[in-house]
Amino acid sequence: MPVMELDEAKARELEEKFDSEIRFRPLAPLAAKLVGGLLVILSLFHYYTAGFGLLPEMIHRGIHLSFVLGLVFLVFPFSKRGYDQPTKSTLLRPLGISVVDWALAIAAVIAVCHVPLIPLDDLAFRVGNPTRTDVILGGVLIVVLLEATRRSVGWPLPIIAILFMAYAIYGQSMPGILVHPGATYSQLIDHLYLTSQGIYGIALGVVATYVFHFVLFGVFATRMGLGQLFLDNAAWIAGRYAGGPAKVSIFGSALFGMISGSSVANTVTVGSLTIPAMIRLGYKKHFAAAVESTASTGGQITPPIMGAAAFLMIEFLGLPYSTIILAAIVPAFMHFFGVFMQVHFEAKRNGLRGLRRDEMPDLKDAWRRDWPTVIPLVALIGILVAGYTPYLAAFWGITLCIVVGLLNPRRRMSIRELFEGFRDGAKYALAVGAAAATVGIVVGVVTLTGVGFKLSFIVTSTAADLASGVGAFLPAWFAAPTTLTLLFTLIMTGAVCILMGCGIPTTANYIIMVTIAAPALVLLGVEPIVAHFFVFYYGVLADITPPVALAAYAAAGMAGADPFKTGNTAFRLGLGKVLVPFVFVFSPSLLLVTSDFTWANFALAFIGCALGITCLSASLSGWFLVRTHAWERIVLIIAALLLIAPEIYSSLLGGLMILPIIIRHLMAWRAGSVPATV
C-alpha cells in the first residue's frame, strides 16, 4: 500500500456527494459565477469584520442572514428532482433557476434587511407595537425561512418550529401545566421578528461571528497542507500496530477534528485514505466505514475548533472560550479512547496486522515539508489562551494560513485556490445559518410562553416518579432518591437528544435541548457547564445513530457497504461515548473547570471511566487478551457500569469482578491457547 497521500480535490468531491448540506444543484456557467462571487463576498465580509471590528448586532446578523437565505434558494432545489433538471436558461428559468426561486430569494433578502435598516430608536418604540409592514414582512420571513431550512437540512426542524408557533398561538387550548394565555399572530411576529430573542437571536449571532470564521480557518488549514501533516503523524504513531489503518483512522480523525467541526467533512477527508486501507487489510466493509464515521464524529467535540455548538456555549454560559476548550479535553479523549479499544480488540480477534515500514510515511520528511502549516494553528490557540475574542483568533489564523499557503514553496497555494477557499468556506454557512435562524423561532416561543420551565418540571416530575418506583426494590444504601431522579432525568434527556439529532443538525439540536432540557438538569443541582456538555455530547452521537446517521452513511457510501449495517456498527463502536456524559455529570471534576474540582476526584473519575470503557469494549468485541466466554462478557458489562459510578466502593467492586477474568486471560495468553467462545 502506498503512503497515505490526501487528495483534497477528491475529498471535496466526496463531501459534496455525501453531505446533503453542501450538495448544490447543477448551475449554468453564469449562475455558477454569480453564486461563487456571492459566496466569496460573504466570506470576505466575515473575514474583514473579524479582524477590523464587527458591525452593530442587528446589522451584522441581517447581512449574514440575507446572503444565506438568498443563496439557499439559488443553490438548493425545491425537491430532489431539481438536481436532475437542465441548467439551460429559459424565460421561466433565468440562468437555469426557476422564477419562483428568484422571487423567494428576493423576498428573503427584503424581509431580512427590513429590521436592520430601522433606526434603533424607532425599533425600540415598535417592539410591542409593530406596524402593518412589520407584521407582513415578518410573516414573509418566517415562511421563506422555513422553506429555506427545509431545502437545506430537511423537514424535521421546520416541523418543530411550526409546532412551537402553534403552541404559542393556541396556548389556551393546551392541557394541564402546558396551558398559557396564548399570543396573537401580531404578538408572535413582533417577538420573533423585531426582538433579539427570536430569529435574530443568539443562535444566528454565534453562527454569523464565531462559527463562520472557524469553518473558514479549517478550510484554509486543510488546503495549505495541515491535514496531510496530521495524517502522516497519525500513520507513524499508530500504523505499525495491529489493525494499523483503523488506528490511523482514529488518530487521524482526532487530529483532523482539531481543525474541522464537521463529522461528514472529517469522515470523507480522512476516510478517503483509511477506509480502502482497512478493507485491503482484512476489515469488513461495514466495519471499516463504521470505524471512520465513529472516530470522525469526535471532530465536533475536539478542541480547539470543535463544532458550532461549542461557540454557543460562550454566549449561553458567559464563559471564555478557553474554559470551554479546557472542559472538552477529557470528554474528547474518552470518545477516541473508546473507539480505539474496540478497534484494538477487533484487530486482535481477527489477527489483523499493522502497516509495514514501506507502507508508512517518513515522519522526518513530512515535518521537513509541512512544518510551516502548524504556525497558524499554534497562533490561533495562543491568541485564544491569551484571552482575545475567538473571531480575532480565527482572523489571524486565516491570515497566517493564507500567508503560509502563498509562500510555502513545497505546497504553494495559487490565487485561484485562495478564492476557491473563500467560496468553499461560505458553502458550509448556508445550511447551518438557515437552521440557526429557524431555531431562533423555537427559542423565541420558549421565551414568550415560558414553556421551557414547564417542560423541565414535567421531566423532573416523571423522573422522580420513576425513581420512587424503582427505589422501592433497591436497598437504601445502593442509591439515594435524588441520585435515581437525576439518573432517570439524564436517561430521558439523552434519549431525546439522540432522537432529535436523527432529524436535525447538531447545532439546532443543542440549542433546542439546552433551552428545554438543560434547565431540568440545573434544577437537580447539575452545574450549567456540565448540563450543556451533556446535551452537546449526546447531540453529536446522532451522527452515527440510525436511521439518520449522516457520517455513518457517508462512510458506507465510500466503502460500498450497507448503510444501515454500518450505522448499527458505528453506534456499537460509539457506546463508550454513551457512558462518558453520565460520568462527568456524577463526577464533574472530569471537565477540569467545575467548582468542586480536585485532582483526587479527577483521578478517580478518569481511571474509573477509562477502565469502564475498556471493559465495555472487551465485552462488545468478544476479546480481551484472548476470546471471552459468554459469562465473562456479562460480567464485564456489569463491571463497566460499576467502574464509572462516582463512588470509590462501587469502583472497587467493579475491579474485583474483573480480577478473575484478567487472571484467566493472562494464563490463557501465556499458554498460547485461544479457547472458543462459549
Automatic annotation (TrEMBL):
Protein name, entry field: TRAP transporter permease
Question: Could you state one GO cellular component term attached to this entry?
Answer: plasma membrane
In terms of domain of life, where is this protein from?
Answer: Bacteria
Q: What is its main location?
A: membrane
Keywords, ordered alphabetically: Cell inner membrane, Cell membrane, Membrane, Transmembrane, Transmembrane helix, Transport
Q: Which NCBIfam families match?
A: TRAP_fused
GO terms (molecular function) for this protein are:
transmembrane transporter activity
Tell me the lineage of the source organism: Bacteria, Pseudomonadati, Pseudomonadota, Alphaproteobacteria, Hyphomicrobiales
What subcellular compartments does it reside in? Answer: Cell inner membrane
Give a yes or no for keyword Disulfide bond in this entry. Answer: no
Q: Which residues form the TRAP C4-dicarboxylate transport system permease DctM subunit domain?
A: 141-595
- Kindly give the membrane topology term recorded for this protein: Multi-pass membrane protein
> TM segments?
27-47, 59-78, 99-119, 131-148, 155-178, 198-221, 324-345, 366-385, 428-453, 473-499, 511-538, 544-561, 573-593, 599-626, 638-663
- What is the protein's known function? Part of the tripartite ATP-independent periplasmic (TRAP) transport system.
Cross-referenced InterPro entries: DctM, TRAP_DctM-Dct_fused
Q: Which residues form a coiled coil?
A: none
